[in-house]
UniProtKB/TrEMBL annotation:
Belongs to the NAD(P)-dependent epimerase/dehydratase family. Dihydroflavonol-4-reductase subfamily. InterPro entries: Epimerase_deHydtase (IPR001509), NAD(P)-bd_dom_sf (IPR036291), NAD(P)_dehydrat-like (IPR050425). GO terms for molecular function: oxidoreductase activity, acting on the CH-OH group of donors, NAD or NADP as acceptor. Pfam families: Epimerase. Residues 5-246 form the NAD-dependent epimerase/dehydratase domain. This is Epimerase.
Length: 344
C-alpha cells in the first residue's frame, strides 16, 4: 500500500500543487477543507493535472477540519504517515492588530501538531516563510540563512511577518517538549508564482494578474525572491522523505528579481498578450504617499522599497538536492496560465 499524506488546506494555491505532485508520485492523499462545498472544486482543480478517475476515486480523499477549531483534526490524521501543513488562517495583512493574525496562525499550527503527534505521524513538514529568517527590519541588506530568526518584538514588523515568525517558533517550541516518534521540518518559501490550477485560488499570483490586466499602471521598486509553486511542492516532498531533513529549517527562495524585470519578462515572453503590462517605474515617494492616504494595503511593501534582502538556499541544495527553476520561466508560465484560465 502506498503511504498516506495529509495536506492541510487543499483549496489553497500551494497545497493544491502539493496534492498534484504527491498523486503523481503514487502517494495516497487526504486533504483538509473547511466545508463539504469545497471538495468538488479541489477535485476538479487537481484533475487538470492528474488523471481524474485515478485521483478522485482511488487516491484522493477529503477531511473536514478548520485551523480555528479543534474538531476534525484527530480524524484527519488517522492512519496518516506524513503531514504537509500548508494551510494558514485568513487574516488582515494590513491590520494594526497583530493579535488578529498571530492567534489563528499559531493556534492552528499547534492544533495540527497535537493531532499529528498523538497519532504518531512520522513527519510533519510545515510551510513557514522566508521572512521568518530575515533581518527584523529592512534596514539591513545582505544574504541570510536558516540560522537567523526574525525578531518578533521589532515594533516596525508588520503583523503578517510577526504572525509567521511566532507560528513557526511555536511549532519548534512544541516539538522541544515532545518526546515521541514524530519529526518536524519547516520550509521557508519566498514569493510564490507559477501556473494556477483554478481561478478561485491564485494566491500571490494576483500580482501577475494585475500586471497583465493593466490594473497595475506602474511597478514599484520592489524585489522578490521568486520560487515556482511546482518547485515548492517538490521541496516539500523532499523535506518529507529525506532522513537528513528531520528537525531542520529549509529556505526555499528563488532568484531575486525586481518587479520591473518581471514586467519586461511578461511583455517579451507573452508578446501581444502582454501588451497591457506597464514598465513604468513608480517613484518610492509616490508609493509611500499612496500607502498613507489612498491604499492601506501598500503599507506592507513600503519598508521593502529598493531593498535587496536575500536568502541562501545552499542548505536545500546540499541536503535535499533541490534546484529551483529560473524566475523568468516561472513568471512567463504564470502569465500563460492566467491567460489560459481566462483570469485576465
Amino acid at each position: 500500500m502506498p503511504e498516506t499524506v495529509l495536506v492541510t488546506g487543499g483549496s489553497g494555491y500551494v497545497a493544491g500543487w502539493c496534492v498534484v505532485e504527491l498523486l503523481r508520485r503514487g502517494y495516497r492523499v487526504r486533504t483538509t477543507v473547511r466545508g463539504h462545498g469545497k471538495e468538488r472544486a479541489v477535485g476538479e482543480a487537481v484533475a487538470t493535472q492528474v488523471d481524474a478517475a485515478d485521483a478522485a476515486a482511488e487516491r484522493l480523499e477529503f477531511a473536514i477540519a478548520d485551523l480555528t477549531a479543534d474538531r476534525g483534526w484527530d480524524a484527519a490524521v488517522e492512519g496518516v504517515d506524513h503531514v504537509l501543513h500548508i494551510a494558514s488562517p485568513l487574516g488582515n495583512a494590513v491590520s494594526d492588530d497583530s493579535a488578529a493574525m498571530i492567534a489563528p496562525a499559531r493556534d492552528g499550527t499547534l492544533r495540527v501538531l497535537r493531532a499529528a503527534t498523538a497519532a504518531g505521524v512520522r513527519r510533519v513538514v510545515m510551510t513557514s516563510a522566508a521572512n521568518t529568517a530575515s533581518p527584523s527590519s529592512y534596514a539591513e541588506e545582505g544574504v541570510t540563512d536558516e540560522t537567523l530568526w526574525t525578531d518578533p518584538e521589532d515594533p516596525a514588523l508588520i503583523p503578517y511577518r510577526r504572525s509567521k515568525t511566532l507560528a513557526e517558533r511555536a511549532a519548534w517550541d512544541f516539538m522541544a517538549t515532545y518526546d515521541g516518534p514524530t519529526q518536524l521540518t519547516t520550509v521557508l518559501p519566498g514569493a510564490v508564482f507559477g501556473p494556477i490550477l483554478a481561478t478561485s485560488t491564485i494566491g500571490s499570483v494576483g500580482i501577475v494578474q494585475r500586471m497583465l490586466s493593466g490594473a497595475l499602471r506602474g511597478v514599484p521598486r520592489i524585489g522578490l525572491e521568486i520560487v515556482d509553486v511546482r518547485d515548492l511542492a517538490d521541496i516539500h516532498i523532499r523535506a518529507m522523505t529525506s532522513p537528513q531533513a528531520a528537525g531542520e529549517r529549509f529556505l526555499a527562495t528563488g532568484e531575486f528579481t525586481w518587479m520591473l524585470d518581471m514586467a519586461h519578462a511578461l511583455r517579451e515572453g507573452l508578446g501581444e498578450q502582454g501588451r497591457q503590462v506597464s514598465t513604468r517605474r513608480i517613484p518610492d515617494v509616490a508609493v509611500r504617499l499612496a500607502a498613507r492616504f489612498r491604499d492601506p494595503s501598500l503599507r506592507e511593501i513600503t519598508p521593502a522599497l529598493g531593498r535587496r534582502n536575500r536568502h541562501s538556499t545552499a542548505k536545500a541544495h546540499r541536503v535535499l538536492g533541490w534546484r529551483p527553476r529560473p524566475a523568468r520561466e516561472t513568471v512567463i508560465d504564470c502569465g500563460r496560465s492566467l491567460l489560459a484560465h481566462g483570469a485576465v
